Amino acid sequence: MKCQFRASLRNDAQLALQVTLILGKSLRIWFGGRVSFSGHADFMNRSEQICAALRTAILERALLPGMKLPEDSLGERFGSSRTIVRQALERLAAEGLVELRRNRGAVVATPSLEEARDLFDLRSQIEDLVVSRLVAKLSKSDLEALNAHVAKEIEAENGPEPVSIRLATEFHILMARLTESPVLIRYVEDVGYRCGLTLALYSRPHSTDCGIQEHREIIEALSNKDEARARDLMRHHLGAVADRALIKPEKEGRSLYLDALEPYARAVREEK
Ligand SMILES: [Zn+2]
Predict the structure, then answer these.
(1) Residue 44 near residue 19 (C-beta atoms within 8 A)
(2) 104-108, 134-138, 145-149, 251-255: range with highest mean pLDDT
């Protein structure tokens, strides 16, 4: 009996040893997994950085609708593999900023005037919801964030127009983020970026003053908790943006080369 007990102890000890070994192996596998996971995280970050740089370049009209985006050239510019570039392009395709054509590679999307009208209509409806939500929950720090963004818009006023247009789009995305509603954030980003693209395609030069003043008035109505006025201002503001945007057919003299992408690509390369 005693002997059997010892034997079982020994067995238990062996079992424990085996468990430790297996666990050790699992832990190594797990840590191995973590290493590859963190590798994966870098991979994601890289492709997200490229995605963000390309998005900004499209919104700032460095890359114009219809321009080809060859994976190998982009890979060279960003100092990344084609796989990482492809992942960034797929994400931009999901946002509607890029079209992926079978066997012919990616191009900057060219929404039709009809699509552009629908996008602006949709945008107006979604942002109406954003305004209603914000009036109910706007905090002091939310107001500060909105005012700080308008200050950036004012600062950029005398700079290149595409930067002003991007900042104007980002004002609306900031409003959506302040609602803390993942659904509103997702749709405002999606529709907002695509409207930004149609601005690149169809807009005529316009006074950005007007946009900034309109943004200020919206903030003021929000801070006064005047929901009716804030919604009214937003509807008129987006109507005016759409009127400015949906005027002119495709621009002449578009740049055909990726050279305009260089400042955006350099920033990503230097982050390495
Ligand atoms: Zn605006």
Answers:
(1) no
(2) 145-149
Q: Calculate how far, in angstroms, residue 15's C-alpha sits from the geometric centre of ligand 1.
A: 68
Q: How far is the CA of 240 from the centre of ligand 1 (A)?
A: 9
Q: Exposed (0-12), middle (13-18) or buried (19+): which is 96, by Cβ within 10 Å?
A: middle
CATH number of the domain bearing residue 192: 1.20.120.530
- Asked if residue 240 and residue 162 are part of one domain, the reply reads yes
pTM, two decimal places: 0.65
Q: Do 139 and 236 fall within a single domain?
A: yes
On whether the CB atoms of residues 249 and 112 are closer than 8 A, the answer is no
Residue 197 lies in a domain: yes
Pick from 43-47, 196-200, 249-253: least confident: 249-253
Cα 92 to averaged position of ligand 1 atoms, centre (Å): 22
Residues 125 and 205 in one domain: yes
Residue 78 reports pLDDT greater than 60: yes
pLDDT by residue (tens digit) across 142-184? 999 999 999 999 998 888 877 887 888 889 999 999 999 999 9
DSSP 193-252: HHHHHHHHHH-----HHHHHHHHHHHHHHHHTT-HHHHHHHHHHHHHHHHHHHSSS-S-S
Q: Strand, helix or coil at 80?
A: coil
Residue 54, domain extent: 46-110+253-270
Q: How far is the CA of 176 from the centre of ligand 1 (A)?
A: 12
Strands 68-69 and 98-101 come out as unpaired
Distance 263 CA to ligand 1 centre (A): 26
Q: Which residue has the tokens 């006023």?
A: 157
Is 16 within a domain?
A: no
**Tokens 């060279």 -> residue:** 76
